[in-house]
Amino acid sequence: MIRNDSHQVSTSGTRAHHPVDQAQGLRQMFASRVLRFVPVVANAATACGGLVLERLCAAYTSFNLKVLVVDASEQARPPGELAEFDLAEGIEELSDQVSYMPARGLPLRYVDARGSCSSLLDTIANTAPQYDVVIVHASASEIVRLFSQRARGTNLRPLLFTNDLAEGLKEAYSAVKIISQRGAWMAYDLLVCATTRSQQAQPVAERLARCADDFLGVAQRDWQLLDPREPAAADPHPRFLELAAGLLRTALPLALSDTAFDHLMSPGAALPSCAAPVLN
After folding, report:
1. CA dihedral of 49, 52, 53, 56, whole degrees rounded to 10
2. What pTM was computed for the model?
3. Cα–Cα nearest to 133, from 143, 145, 124
């Protein structure tokens, strides 16, 4: 963190230049601050989306990160009418560290002539700069439209999930096909939502890994079981925390723009914590 110290001097021995106003001071303090966007590919054949998002939020808040969930899946609500004029009006605060934005259909409102919806990510970053992590939950097609243009040359690794049934597996394989052929992402992580007594969870994960590798050349980096019977208040398992941290390391980083700083300076706007997490 850059110190705003009145006694700081430059290497030439003269007093360092100081910001002329508070906004400039904020720009200096958070010049390297970024939001990290984590893509989570929805699975319409399962009812696991809420569970996956809930557990990811628990993991990131345990890292002392502030999280915004942007839910553009088919199961989500469309954004409210006011969100068309100001995206911030569509954000619902669930706790001090977690907020939620229903966003079904929202990405296509930002589509450009090339089929990209990446400008929505910029709008989110500029509208909600006080967050550290933005989890984007959407179909495989929309994940590609949102991330592919900005993620070129990065090590982005989407998170997929399924249940232990054939329908969920089929949908997950279809998602792998879309992200590899249209997004050029050749690796993913997987969560299988099933009880610990399930006899099909491991075979499902292994079959998806084998088909993804044999037919698409895509690697399943890791898979984990997510038990829906586990209490929501339970601390995340260390292995799950490791997976969540890995997703952060490969997330899409977007630096805050001047628009975001202007939002931070607006009356009543909440400022990011000065004790920024290590990833920032």
Report:
1. -170
2. 0.82
3. 124
| Cα separation, 55 vs 67, whole angstroms | 12
- CB environment 173-206: b (16+ within 10 A), e (fewer): bebbbbbbeebebebbbbbbbbeeebeebeebbe
Distance CA 45, CA 169 (A): 9
- Note the pLDDT tens digit of each residue in 177-215: 999 999 999 999 999 999 999 999 999 999 999 999 999
**Token code pair at residue 79:** 């954004």
Strand partners, 68: 99, 134
DSSP letters spanning 80-122: PGGGGT-GGGG-EE-SSSEEEEE-TTTGGGG--TTS--THHHH
Which has the closest alpha carbon to 44: 124, 208, 162, 157?
Answer: 162
Q: Using CA atoms, how far apart are residues 141 and 13, in angstroms rounded to an integer?
A: 56
